[in-house]
Write a structure and sequence with these properties.
The protein is mostly helical and 120 residues long. The protein has a three-stranded antiparallel beta sheet with strand order 1-3-2.
Length: 120
């Protein structure tokens, strides 16, 4: 997990992972997307490969890089320990509270004035 966390600590490496999310790319295609030198991109690819996040496939004379996202699983489980409920869950809890409050107020009102109960 430490190697994976170290590998994704760099923004260039995270961007490379995003690029490889849907397709395999050559080092040249990856390097063409950055304003850094090709050797620098090669070093980033080596770090990602050593962490197990990517692997390369030799097809003819070209080497393609492919994402191996399974290595992120252990880190994702650890990070999930710190994630609070999503915004939607909190909003749904607030909605549930409001529904209970409205029902309670309606019951009080209907109990106080039973003739208004059937007017809605």
């Amino acid at each position: 997990m430490d190697k994976v966390a170290g590998a994704i600590a760099d923004p260039v490496r995270r961007e490379i992972l995003l690029m490889l999310r849907n397709e395999r790319l050559t080092a040249g295609e990856i390097a063409g997307c950055f304003a850094i030198s090709r050797p620098a991109v090669s070093r980033h690819l080596r770090v990602l490969r050593e962490s197990g996040l990517i692997h390369d496939e030799l097809v003819g004379r070209q080497r393609f890089y492919v994402l191996d996202a399974e290595q992120l699983g252990e880190l994702a489980k650890w990070l999930a320990l710190f994630i609070r409920p999503s915004g939607w869950e909190r909003r749904l809890d607030a909605l549930e509270t409001e529904v209970y409050r409205t029902r309670r107020e309606r019951r009080k009102r209907d109990t106080a004035d039973p003739e208004k109960r059937n007017t809605a």
